[in-house]
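User: Design a sequence. Structure:
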């Protein structure tokens, strides 16, 4: 599992997003059913950064 899919990296990114300082996007990959962190989402990824900022994942 690459770092972008590691639970610790996702949690760190969620914390950054909810504190208003996102540095990367949180995305959901519908092909794998997994969340990951990226600076460059693919066209198939569902960007979930705003959803996370609204508190959906926390």
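Assistant: Done.
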């Amino acid at each position: 599992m690459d770092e972008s899919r590691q639970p610790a990296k996702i949690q760190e990114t969620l914390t950054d997003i909810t504190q208003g300082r996102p540095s990367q996007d949180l995305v959901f990959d519908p092909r794998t059913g997994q969340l990951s962190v990226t600076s460059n989402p693919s066209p198939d990824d569902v960007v979930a950064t705003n959803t996370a900022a609204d508190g959906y994942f926390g």
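The beta strands are 25-29, 34-38, 46-47. The radius of gyration is 10 Å.
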